[in-house]
Write a structure and sequence with these properties.
By secondary structure, the chain is of the alpha+beta class. Helix content is 22%, strand content 22%.
């Protein structure tokens, strides 16, 4: 037997390096490819959206049922910058104003989209929420729009928006509105 030939049980250096390279690529690529299972989200106006979300909580939405948003602003986007998580009508350039958003409703945590690298959000009092954020004016506006239908120009919607914009600091959602 040659002195250079590997013995039984020896690791061949080139083979070991190849295995380590494959393992490193698999470990490093896994988080980038990880996706959350497809979700069906429901808003306060009985619309249903299919959400395709990544592990960081970025979601692409597609409306599956319910009334379509009136007017030219029709792209549904997730609003997750406040305490209440909702769906907004957008021109494709961000969340849209809070009066164009409706909160997501839920029965359990898994009904809510992911946030902060978790596989699902938090369902609190029947609403998808981000407990790490306090209630702000945009949350109050969105909660006051519950049950008024889509759009923001009817008399009741204008009145409720004005009422919510007076929520104070810290913001207290007006009594006639959906409470968080």
């Amino acid at each position: 037997m040659s002195a250079l030939a590997p013995r039984r049980g020896d690791i061949i250096p080139g083979l070991m390096l190849s295995r380590l390279a494959v393992l490193a690529v698999a470990v490093l690529a896994a988080p980038a490819c990880k996706r959350v299972p497809e979700l069906l989200l429901r808003d306060s106006e009985a619309r249903v959206f299919r959400a395709d979300c990544d592990a960081q909580g970025t979601c692409q939405l597609e409306q599956r049922s319910g009334e379509k948003w009136p007017g030219p602003v029709t792209t549904p986007v997730l609003r997750s910058s406040g305490h209440v998580v909702g769906v907004c009508a957008s021109a494709g350039d961000g969340e849209g104003p809070p009066e164009d958003c409706r909160p997501l409703v839920c029965a359990k945590d898994s009904d809510c989209p992911p946030s902060h690298r978790r596989t699902h959000g938090t369902c609190l009092n029947g609403l998808c929420t981000d407990e790490s954020l306090g209630i702000g004016m945009a949350d109050a506006v969105m909660l006051c729009m519950v049950g008024t239908g889509l759009g923001h120009d009817s008399l009741s919607q204008v009145e409720r928006r004005a009422m919510a914009q007076q929520c104070g600091t810290p913001c207290e959602v007006p009594k006639p509105c959906r409470q968080p």
